[in-house]
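Hi support team,

I submitted a single chain yesterday and got back a structure, but I'm not sure I'm reading the token output correctly. Could someone confirm the output below corresponds to the sequence I sent? I've pasted both exactly as they appear in my results page.

Thanks,
R.
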Amino acid sequence: MGYTSSSLSSFDETLRVLEWDRVLDALAQQAQSAPGARHCRALPLESTIEAATARLAETGEMLRLRAGTDPFPPVQITDLSEVFARAAKGGVLDAHELRNVAAFVRVTEDVVRYGHRHRAEASTLAAVAGALPSLQTLAELRAEIEWVVDADGTIKDSASPELRRLTQQVHDLKLAMRRRLEAILHSHRYADLLQERYFAQREGRYVVPIKTESRSVIPGIVHDVSASGATVFLEPRELVDLNNGIKVGELSVEREVRRILHELTGHIAAHADRLREAQDILVRLDVIQAKAALAVLLQASPVPLNNRGRVRLLRARHPLLALARPDVVANDVNLDEATRVMVISGANTGGKTVTLKLVGLFALMARAGLPLPCDEGSEMALFPSIYADIGDAQDLAKDLSSFSSHVTCMIGLLDAVASGDGSARTDACRWLVLLDEPMTSTDPAEGAALAQALLERLASLHVKAIVTTHYTALKVMAQATPGFANASVEFDVARLAPTYRLIAGIPGGSSAIEIAGRLGMEETLLSAARERLRSDDMALERLIGDLQAAQRRVADDLQRVETLRGELEAATREAALIAERAREAEWTERRSAKKKISEEAQRARAAIQAVMDELKQQRTIERAKAAKARIAAIEADTASGEPVPSGPPLDSLEVGDLVEVSSLGTQGVLLERPAGRSRVRIRVGHAEMSVPVGGLLGVPRQPGGRPAVAGTALPSPRPVWGLGGAEEPETVVDVRGRAAEDALASVVAQLDRAALAGAPLLRIIHGHGTGRLRAILRDYLKGSPYVAAFRAGERAEGGDGVTIVELRV
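Hi R., thanks for writing in. Yes, this is the structure output for that exact sequence:
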């Protein structure tokens, strides 16, 4: 840390006064393994910006993975360091230890697979997991263990053929023993000798409970006596051979089990070094996931780091307070490169010390790779050396007063900074110094003078310092000296309560007399105290109070502005959403109306065809007039349906606007203004055509005055190839590559025009493709009233990719 003076408060003392151990305890509670929690409590602090940034990057990746659909797998492992070490030294692991090794290997496999899946979006963590053993090695080792050891930590009978044989042999002997014991318990010979009808085991041998007075009746070996002395546990002589056989068999089983365990431990010993490394990696990953979990609790995020002493903390929350309750007051803390010393003043219990500890903890968290509980846009400096002098520094062991102890610490601090490698006087800002009420517990005038000199020296050594004070001289110095800045904590005298708000740029008053009055001190004493205050001190206190009140009003106004701006943005978004929904509803209604009209048109076509057929049979003027009247009636009846929602008036349309041609069921782009014209030219797809103005509908413009075009919520123009004027119907329609519904609509429209113009044939080009479009079109032609017959095209006409339609004439 650069502490060279024995009188300087140690770095451990700095960590203690900042309560760093409480942050580490909170971190350890998020760990998923015992070794992970242990490492959290001994979290290392990086001293270079490169290393600290790398730690933050790891935590940031873990946070992103945690928020995804495939979070990092649990790292729930036990500490197997001693197990691996004993295996490497030739010791034999028991079955439970082998089961723990198998569980460890299974977790390692999960992490390796996860690293492979997420190496693209989490390259740093994937690189960490990439140092684990290969999946093949892990799978082979786990399979060997699980072949021998069951999930409950017992050796499987199938671990080896010999173990299976020996286990079966012992099992058979025990069955024989049970049969013999059942015979004894139910025999007349033992009826009066047994204390109770049951058998037991003593020292691994089967025995029966015999009355003490009858033990000489049955020859055998006594293995135990009951607590009352009324029962002896006797191994009858007739059971000795069976018991011996069972004992020998069990010893053989134990021998085979030891052989298997020794062999399996040897396999683990061959991988012991890699397994120890794997455990270290898993513990490291557990610590990283604990950092991410703590960040979620604190609503924290990684912030950029710099080594120039630039601190920009937006809505920063004290981490320990944030863990204790959700309603922590957030404050902005800003110290740019030019600001060396910040002087925080204000009433007691107003939060000055909380601000000191907040900045100190943020500096430690940045070095540890922990995200900071502050808002986006924040930035934190990396300080390799941190010193905090907070609280009473009285040293009774050295018979030093509080003042003497503080002075001794300051001397040590200055020596440590000045005797560094020179980096303290370069652009890199290495030291963060946090001083709570420096140079107090002595004459105020002398103490203030010493504090001024101390802060000037610290500023000249390129140290970043934050101090709290009640000295007026320090407040004036901070206001007038380049590189210094004032700040204050707000105190609501009316409520006799701190607000814990930090106000930058304004010193704070102590409000001691007002607080004493609120606490109940006599008014006569308060008046006497005010009379003894110098007039300039009173004026300064009033000025400070006025400045704080003005600052409070500005802050409240800014908060209201931000609230109103948020409400306005929300209202704007809602209005845009409502407008978009209205446009969608209008066009949904329009499509529905068009569908109804299309159905009416189908019926009209059939009626018109019937009239045409009648005209063909009786070509008289009277009949023609009657037919004309019927067609007019059909048209009127069709037009009497539900009106289609209208777009912009035709007179307002300009060149480039989108229009719909109702007679064609398609959309096109205007090439001429329709005002004052009976016909206009439009572009449909890649073709131009002349259409009557009366058959056009304006398409609504998009917001901003732009015409709706393809790709918007409106239907895109449907090009109709080869359409000429109504007097010269085209006998070819090309629908290749179009959707079935769109192609069918074009074919139906062309049939209408061709039939009304008396064309004999229509050639439909639909292409081969999958054959679905061809089938749909031909299926429709079968029922069309205009079609007399149709066929596939000849080879010269396009083959089966073309349909030739013969129209009724």
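A quick pointer for reading it: The CA atoms of residues 75 and 286 lie 6 Å apart. Let us know if anything else looks off.

Best,
Support desk
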